[in-house]
Amino acid sequence: MTSIAREPLDKLLGYAMRAEIDSDGVYTELAKKVKNPLLVEKFKLLAFEERKHKGVLENLFEAMYPGDTPEVPARVDPKLLPTVTIRPSTDLLDILRQAMQAEASSQAFYVGLAKRVELAKKKILIYLSKVERGHYLMLRSEYSMVQQFADYGEKDIDKIVT
Question: Is the dihedral of CA 108, 111, 113, 115 positive or negative?
């Protein structure tokens, strides 16, 4: 397994970029699949924030390794940064559970990275960890809604509760 404590920072930043790219893709796909307009907008927001995170990480990489190009792998060790797997049979509740796990792992990942860098860069990584925590909380709220309303992802909220 890949370790935050032992891997070179440049490699870990590449892993983080891959995770942000993957998360953007998942949330973009989900925004196209669900019908509930509130949920669509939340997934679009999450996708937007993940794209922004990738840019933040690219800027951080450039500041740490001027002139170098980050190595962004095709995949990351799922024990380090889990991804969301969507299959035709995967229901929304399972997708949200996986996304919550991915966001919680990202939060811990950024906290771990922050321990290895100087103060200015530490602040950026702590910021990212806090935003990932916010993503987790948003997803947890949506998870609760799907548990309470089986067709939450398929209908506008006014059609579910009336």
Answer: negative
Q: How far apart are CA 80 and CA 77, in angstroms?
A: 5
Which CATH number applies to 9-160?
A: 1.20.1260.10
CA angle 39, 133, 123 (to 5 degrees): 130
| Contacts of residue 12, Cβ cutoff 8 Å, sequence gap at least 6 | 4, 109, 113
Which contacts (CB < 8 Å, 24+ apart) does range 9-13 have?
A: 9/64, 9/113, 9/116, 9/117, 10/61, 10/64, 10/65, 10/68, 10/70, 10/71, 11/71, 12/109, 12/113, 13/57, 13/60, 13/61, 13/64, 13/70, 13/113
Q: 12-62: per-residue pLDDT in tens?
A: 999 999 999 999 999 999 999 999 999 999 999 999 999 999 999 999 999
pTM for the structure as a whole? 0.92
Maximum CA extent, the chain: 58
Q: How far apart, in whole angstroms, are the C-alpha atoms of residue 120 and residue 133?
A: 21
